[in-house]
Each structure stands twice: as structure tokens, then as C-alpha cells.
Design brief:
Elements: H1 36-61, H2 68-79, H3 85-106, E1 113-115, E2 130-132, H4 133-145, E3 150-157, E4 161-168, H5 173-191, E5 198-205
Parallel strand pairs: 4-5
Antiparallel strand pairs: 1-2, 3-4
Length: 211
């Protein structure tokens, strides 16, 4: 169960997204990924490009010939127009890369972590807690297996929905489904999630050889 007092990007005033200001009730927003690898790659590419252009600029200012690759690039750009296929393909690739960077910057990213309810007291500590989807699925599966008549169960936990597929080897399917609904309602409430997901339960009869 990860805790996120210092995991997410900070908003204005130095608080994390989802933290609460003193004197206001706490909120439970989604956890934001730091995305170290995309940030490091972007910074490396920008630093390398800036270094090359700075070196070339300094060489020209020192009355030395510019780098050959820049002269070749300028000559090629002078021979092409914006309507050329090569230019359009390069522009499309750059635009797609820009869209990817914008999506990474504007979305939380940590989809596998469900935010939990913040503490009742407002102490200004900014401590947050989250529960992994797989961990929540294991807990709910154990609760489902406790229901009488359930032979096997598969649980998938999403941001807004919990999908349960169970097979029963005895008892009426409607009775097993009703018990599963009740048990899962209690189990989801005990997880302490900030936004409890909805339940979708499906019960089928187990194969004859597996009863």
C-alpha cells in the first residue's frame, strides 16, 4: 500500500495535487506519476540540441566555419517547401510527439493505484494513502471465496467498477449472486477507497468435472 506524502507533483503554494489546505476538509485526488524516464529523455534531447547549437554559434562568432551538418541542413531546407511529403511527414511526427508529451504532462499516470480516504483530522501533514488494484482484487477475491457455493472467482478492479466472475458448484445461482453482492458491498467499503467502485457480479454453473 503506497503512501504519497511526497510522491506527486506540487501545485501552487507547494502542496501536492489532492492535498488540503489548513482549515479545509481533506480531499483524495489521484496519484500523479513523476515520470522520471520521459522527463530524463526529454531533458537529454533538449540539452544535446542546445549544446550543439551553442557550440556552432560560438564557432561562427569566433570566425570559424560552422558545423557541416548545419550547413547541409540549411541547404536541404532551402530546397524543400512545406508541401513536400518529407516535410509533412516530419511535421506529423513532431506533432505526434508533442501530443504524447502533453498527455504525459496533463494526466496522472498512476492508474494502478486507487486513492484511499484521507484522515478525518485536518492536521496539514499532507499524508495520503493508496491501494493497488491487484491488491484490492486479491482482497475481494478472498471475500468472494468465503461465500457458500462459490467454486472459483475472478475479480478485476478498475477505477470505477469491480467485475466479478464466479462459478458455483451447488446452491441456486440467484442465491449465490445475492450473497456475493452483499459480501462485496461490505468488502469494498472496508477497503476505505475515496471513490468506491460499482459492482458487476456474474455467476455461472461450474462444469460437471470441476464440481
Amino acid at each position: 500500500m503506497p503512501t504519497g506524502g511526497g510522491a506527486g507533483p506540487r501545485g501552487r503554494g507547494g502542496r501536492h495535487r489532492g492535498d488540503h489546505a489548513p482549515g479545509r476538509p481533506p480531499t483524495a485526488g489521484r496519484f500523479w506519476s513523476t515520470r522520471r524516464i520521459p522527463a530524463a529523455l526529454t531533458a537529454f534531447v533538449l540539452l544535446a540540441a542546445a549544446g550543439l547549437f551553442l557550440y556552432d554559434f560560438a564557432a561562427v562568432r569566433a570566425h570559424r566555419p560552422g558545423m557541416q551538418w548545419r550547413r547541409d541542413l540549411a541547404a536541404r531546407l532551402a530546397q524543400h517547401t512545406p508541401a513536400d511529403p518529407q516535410v509533412l511527414v516530419a511535421a506529423a511526427v513532431l506533432a505526434a510527439a508533442g501530443v504524447v508529451l502533453l498527455v504525459l504532462a496533463l494526466t496522472p499516470g498512476l492508474r494502478g493505484v486507487l486513492p484511499m480516504l484521507p484522515p478525518n483530522e485536518v492536521d496539514g501533514s499532507g499524508i495520503r494513502a493508496g491501494l493497488g488494484r491487484k491488491d484490492a482484487a486479491l482482497v475481494l477475491r478472498d471475500r468472494a471465496m468465503e461465500v457458500s457455493g462459490v467454486r472459483s472467482a475472478r475479480v478485476r478492479v478498475g477505477r470505477t467498477r469491480v467485475a466479478v466472475r464466479a462459478s458455483s458448484h451447488f446452491r441456486e445461482l440467484d442465491d449465490v449472486r445475492a450473497d456475493l453482492e452483499a459480501v462485496l458491498a461490505v468488502g469494498i467499503g472496508e477497503l476505505g477507497l475515496a471513490h468506491p467502485p460499482q459492482r458487476r457480479v456474474r455467476v455461472t454453473r461450474a462444469a460437471a468435472g470441476k464440481r
